[in-house]
Design a protein that fits this description.
The complex is a heterodimer of chains A (134) and B (180). Chain A has one helix at 2-17; strands at residues 27-39, 44-47, 58-61, 66-69, 78-80, 83-86, 90-96, 100-106, 111-118, 121-131. Chain A is mainly beta and 134 residues long. Classes of the chains: A mainly beta (134), B mainly alpha (180).
């Protein structure tokens, strides 16, 4: 009984941790949960992502090096990134689009951290990603 | 008689004798070096220089002493223009302009001017944009003012150069060796 319980616990914990494991994933859907914009004056605003025109969902393709909106959003927006680095721990993307942007996605947890830097302001975003093959 | 003539010449010149620096000939005040090749004495040289000065003014339409005044007026004008340029746009702090993002850009349209319209953060964005615009306008105005000042200085230098040429030619015609 004790062994059975241990196996069950291990399975449960294991599946919880690897729920959004992105190892080997080249296309993923990401969503932003929190966003913050800060200005050179020191003013910062914590906002809902859509208040900053951040799409609810984006599709990141590390092979095509693009970030785009989903088809169902009908927004038809996309940005290419110029650099991608993938290792066991994280996926890092960088590009230029009216300033510079960097996104870091934790391979194990799928957590997304992003920063956009422009003249006089920066936008920070925090969210999560999962593979498109659900 | 010669003295009276010289005195009359000096009065006839558009320049008062007092503007000439003590001990310097008319030519020397303009950094023009004159040597009397035919052994002319200093009073003859002064007389010839005065005559040539008048001749050169008539031929070039420029008077170096007026040009000097003009130069200092231009310097003052340039200074005023620079000050105006520095103040240009200093009151402009609001009113952002949509810029940068290509239509359909995903990252570029985040926190765009359009997205900020009517929002509290949009006002902060407008402030940043306004300050940038003011700084750029100030820089452009400064460059323009500097360019205009340079053009004016160049025009004055050319006028002075032409005058010296005419003045020299005249003196050379009167048996003087001239360098400037």
């Amino acid at each position: 009984m004790k062994r059975f319980l241990l196996v069950c616990t291990a399975l449960f914990v294991g599946s919880a941790v690897s729920a959004d494991n992105l190892a080997g994933v080249t296309e993923m859907v990401c969503s932003t949960a929190r966003a913050q914009i800060c200005f050179e004056t020191g003013e910062c605003f914590a906002l809902a992502p859509w208040e900053l025109n951040i799409p609810d969902f984006v599709v990141i393709d590390t092979k095509k090096k693009t970030i785009r909106t989903t088809k169902s959003s009908a927004q038809n927006r996309s940005t290419a990134f110029t650099r991608v680095e993938i290792d066991d721990r994280s996926i890092t993307l960088q590009g230029v689009d009216v300033g510079a942007f960097s996104l870091v996605i934790d391979v194990v947890t799928g957590r997304l951290t992003g920063a956009i830097a422009r003249d006089g302001l920066s936008v920070s975003v925090f969210g999560a990603c999962t593979g498109t093959k659900l | 008689m010669k003295k009276i003539l010289l005195l009359l010449m000096a009065v006839a010149l558009p320049v008062s004798v007092s503007t000439l620096q003590a001990g310097k000939t008319l030519a020397a005040t303009m950094d023009v070096y004159v040597f009397p090749s035919a052994g002319q004495d200093s009073s003859k040289q002064s007389e010839d220089e005065a005559a040539c000065y008048k001749w050169a003014v008539g031929n070039t339409g420029s008077d170096p002493f007026n040009l000097t005044k003009q130069q200092s007026a231009e310097q003052q004008q340039a200074q005023t223009e620079m000050q105006t340029a520095e103040q240009a746009g200093s009151g402009r702090t609001g009113g952002g302009v949509v810029r940068g993002a290509a239509a359909g850009a995903l990252i570029g349209e985040i926190a765009s001017d359009d997205a900020g319209k009517g929002a509290a953060w949009g006002a902060a964005l407008g402030g940043v944009r306004g300050r940038r615009q003011a700084a750029h306008a100030q820089q452009e105005a400064k460059q323009e003012a500097a360019g205009q000042a340079e053009q004016r200085e160049q025009a004055t230098a050319t006028q002075l150069e032409n005058f010296k040429k005419a003045f020299s030619v005249c003196l050379e015609g009167k048996d003087y060796m001239v360098k400037y």
